[in-house]
Amino acid sequence: MVVGHAAPEMESIYNFINGETTATAKQLDVYEPAVGEVYAQAPASNANEVDLAVTAAAAAFDGWRRTPAAERARCLGRLADLLEERIDEFAAAESRDNGKPLQLAATLDIPRAVTNLRFFAGAAEHFASEAHAMEQGAINYTLRQPLGVVGCISPWNLPLYLFTWKVAPALAAGNTVVAKPSELTPMTAYLLSRLANRAGFPPGVFNVVHGEGANAGQAIVDNPRIKAISFTGGTVTGERIARSVAGSFKKLSLEMGGKNPTIVFADCDFDDMLATTVRAAFANQGEICLCGSRILIERPLYERFRDVFASAVSALRVGDPRNVDTDQGALVSKSHMNKVLGHIDQARKDGGTILAGGQRIRPEGRCRNGWFVAPTVIDGLGPACAANQEEIFGPVATLLPFEGEDEAIALANGSDYGLAASIWTADGSRALRLAQEVEAGLVWVNTWMMRDLRTPMGGMKRSGLGREGGFEAMRFFTEARNVCIRYE
Ligand code: NAD
Fold first, then answer.
1. How far is CA 41 from its chain centroid?
2. In Å, how far are 76, 137, 210, 267 from 153, measured between CA atoms?
3. What is the distance between the alpha carbons of residues 40 and 8, in angstroms, rounded to a whole number?
């Protein structure tokens, strides 16, 4: 990121602090990945802007926590309505900012952001706590009270989807928020912040500060008035944040990387499995933390799977995200594209066979300088190779054969990560056995990425700490206080 000077045609993004949009002296260039050019300028906030936002959020907290849950729910619901009225505008903005197909933004990202806001509007009113009666003549009840000012830090891959997944429960539970979207994809969080006043949020309740992770992000993490950090992003960043907050004992929720296995048994429904496995590996250019990038195939099915899968992947259409028939758009940044290409080169050096893709793509026309990588399938690598261990977070899937359940489990668990797994088999008992043995916070059987927002979402091992979703998120954003009353 560099300091830039906005050309007249540049779009401008502003912070949203205390109910007002504000600019910073220093700005960051924001790129359109599909064309490889700067199209907007965003604030390069630092600790000063974060402190202004925290001051506003701290001042607003007492009023917001005393606001009836029904009114908090109404604000979230109105924000959902305002967003839903603008799905096309937001989808176009998300696609331009991130490089993802417009169609995907219009059918997945923005509708899901609407759903997140509405879902947690409901949660605000339905959240309840426990009571424990004691035989000795006393009753306990648990209060779950908002924490105060909380920090929400989100990544670039599903920008508004993951941003709302954090801010909605935080606000629903009665906290005030200082949120920072990724500096690579700040646009839709900015557009959403512009709707906050109309939705009825009092000034200071919902603040959005833009900027780089090392500056604005770290300032949120380090700010002593922020009581909790909800972070989604890379494991290295999560580790750094965990170290930073260790001494202050802030509440911490970390949703981090994955190297998720798709486990395919020979008895599965082949056509269903194939279509979903292609989607699981390559949806959103493979830039979803839940993507199944490590495909384990039972030996008797291996050759058939390899050939059909490679040709299905080669048929994916890569190109201008605006085209309705585009399956895969651009990667989010030039450096991310180079990182993905570096992983593919390393896989070649390690002796892997490239069955599909393997190179940069330069589409015709306006996208010729965009950051596109052909969907890539690699086999012939051992489980310890970098391509089978490191999160690539791009359109690259590896294939590995296995014999029997034990080897499938050993391969699936032979990773530092533990976010998600998808198991394909017609044998119900086997599915249940594996679902208990595979080290993953989310296990799908004969499906992928079916999400019920009430369920716990998160990873084990180096994939995460804590869970989001449903009342798990409401519990994270509240402090439990037990009250014990003796009546005898
Ligand atoms: P990243 O870690 O680089 O950045 C994520 C966010 O953290 C950004 O807003 C960034 O500005 C901020 N940040 C960076 N350094 C910081 C610091 N020192 N202090 C505070 N904030 C800081 O991740 P990314 O590249 O944006 O996203 C890709 C990663 O996110 C992948 O590893 C992916 O697996 C992971 N991810 C995980 C989930 C999940 O639910 N587990 C979901 C989506 C993405």
1. 23
2. 19, 45, 10, 42
3. 10
Using the mean position of ligand 1's atoms as its centre, give its distance from the Cα of residue 236 in Å. 9
Six-digit token pair at 330?
A: 């651009």
Domains of the chain are: 3-256+463-483 (3.40.605.10), 261-452 (3.40.309.10)
pLDDT at 79 (0 to 100): 99
pLDDT of residue 9: 81
As a whole number, mean pLDDT of residues 181-193 equals 98
Which residues is 104 bridged to in the sheet?
none
406: confidence class by pLDDT, cuts 50, 70, 90? very high
Ligand 1: which residues within 6 Å by Cβ? 153-157, 162, 180, 182-183, 212-214, 217-218, 221, 232-234, 237, 240-241, 255-258, 289, 391, 393, 419, 459, 463-464
In this structure, are residues 331 and 285 in contact, taking their beta carbons and an 8 Å threshold?
A: yes
Indicate which residue's Cα is closest to atom 16 of ligand 1: 213
367 given a catalytic annotation: no
pLDDT digits (tens, 9 = 90+) for 252-281: 999 999 999 999 999 999 999 999 999 999
* CA–centroid distance, residue 87 to ligand 1 (Å): 25
pLDDT score for 3: 42
Ligand 1 center–CA 311 separation, angstroms = 33
* Residue 1: per-residue pLDDT: 36
CA atoms of 10 and 31, how far apart (whole Å) = 11
> What is residue 8's predicted lDDT score, i.e. its pLDDT?
56
How far are the Cα atoms of 31, 35, 334, 370 from residue 365, in angstroms, in the given order? 18, 10, 18, 10
Q: Which of 45, 152, 157 to mutate to test the pocket of ligand 1 (most atoms within 8 A of CB)?
A: 157
Known catalytic residue at 385: no
User: Taking residues 120-134, what's their average pLDDT?
Assistant: 97
